[in-house]
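Self-study notes.
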Amino acid sequence: MKITLEYPEFMLLSSTVLHLANHNIFAYILFGLSLLLGLCRLALRIQKTQQESEYVDSSMGKIRDALLKLATVNTTPQDSGIRH
């Protein structure tokens, strides 16, 4: 598991420090902002995963269509112009 310290986590730590220093209003504001930013980051990650999944699905569809087109090509021998 990859652990990162980005902006929402930094705001959460800052709100904890402010809460311990009895600056509760600022602590609650930072806590709310950290939750909001964390949810936005999660939503972006979910959207990226869905887009990648759609890309893979469309690619698989194109491959399937190409293989079906290749399989349904008229397989009758063509006149080569050579007479026996």
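Second protein, same conventions, sequence then structure:
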Amino acid sequence: MIGLAISTGVSEFKVDSMTFRLASDYVNISSNADLMKFKGSGTADDPYIIDGLNLNNHIGNGIVIRNTDAYILIKNCTMANLTGDYYGLYDVNGINIDDAKNVRVENCRLSGSGSSLSVSSAENIQITNYRGENIMFSGVKNGLIENCNSEHILVQEKIELMPSPRVTTDFMPETETRVPSQNCLIKDCKSAYEIVLLSPKNCIVENCYVKDGWLMAFTPINTSFTNSTVVNATMEMDFSSNTTLENMTLVDLKGINLGGFSPESYSPVVKNSTANGEEIYYYHDQRGLHLENLTAGYIWLVDCPETRIEGVEARGIFAINSNSSTIERSKANQIILAFSKNVLIANNTLRDSSAREAIKLDTGTSNITLYHNIITKSERYFGENLFASGIDASQSEGNNTFENNIITDSGYGILAGGNNTFTGNTIANNIVSIKVSGNNNRVTQNNFIYNSVDAEQSSYMNISFANNNWDGNFWATYKGVENDKTGLGSTPYVENIPFPRPCEPSPQVQEPVIDKVPSIVPISKT
């Protein structure tokens, strides 16, 4: 067992008959001087050793290391059911390393409440053979997480707020400093629910296994994912810069989410990888490709204008900066377009799509035609309270045409911005059939069949919906009667402003949807 430099334990005080207990650190190291009681000399070859701590039902943190640069080895420690919080400000951790260097954690086990290992503003940190629910790196330089069994592995930047010079006697502004985690390796971690990298720099995820949750990289720079397996999970690669996926095995992915402000943001390089046993085809800088009757894991086009994809089966089809392309008569779980114009998406089937958006027309898209596609969703929600979408064109530049498509069983059937035409579509059994957040949309001769909310126009910006045209649609919930055998209703159809939804900010502008001449019979167009 170890010789402990232990804090005073749980402090308490009484007021009348009530006792108030406060959390305390069981082992608290605040400087190199606090390490003198431990075995070792603090060098790389002879570190100070904290060995064999067995801690149960303590109120407070287990081991806290702060403001040290001596070499420290924490090993063979077991902690369970740590409880309490520090004055209501933050929860307890089994091991907490803050503003320290040269710390190794080996063969430690944390279970129950407080089973987290948190490392912040630290350098040269190694975590190996650790078992516990969470590992969190914030602003860590030169970090290793190896052969660990943790459900949640988070590597993120550290955000520090510093007071600025006083501007007035009543106002003290703050400046924000972001310190990325960099040069971190996550290796041989085989039982993660999620591995999440937020603004990592020069980081590697190697030979890991993620199931049922997330593999996420948000604003990664020079980051690679290699020799890893992702099962029944969602991959998110947003705002990428020089990111690589190599020798990846993807199985029954719910979807891949992409986002960014440039084509590069949507274009991690994919090498030698498979999805459901099929090759992921990655094409770059090729004009006039013709891919026909192909079975693929994913098809990823980057800078490939005038490509024709016809009769393929794939988990996903992504076209980035690939103008004047065609995707038709194919089957997929998702289709994403970004920075692509004049694209035809026609006669495709996206059945039981599990992606967040079955079809996404994202940043830099315009003049896209979606014709006669069938989209059904396997789930209406993405996460606990967020709606999934059949078609999401909310970030598109507009001038798109949506004709004769069928969209069912989603959260949002269609999300759109402005300057679009919708005609002949059948949108059924969604929570919200169509939501537009822009002006100059023409929504006519569509079928709206038993959606919770048939139509919505709302925006987080102060805009007008005056030029949106909603006339001539069939609404299954319409209660009016026919007007003089014209096939049109005698009174307008009105979809009022819906109630606020959980986890969505309140829009700045909302207006009811009014169809002045609704059809009283379904519309059939071929």
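Instructor comment on the second fold: The chain is about 0% helix and 50% strand.
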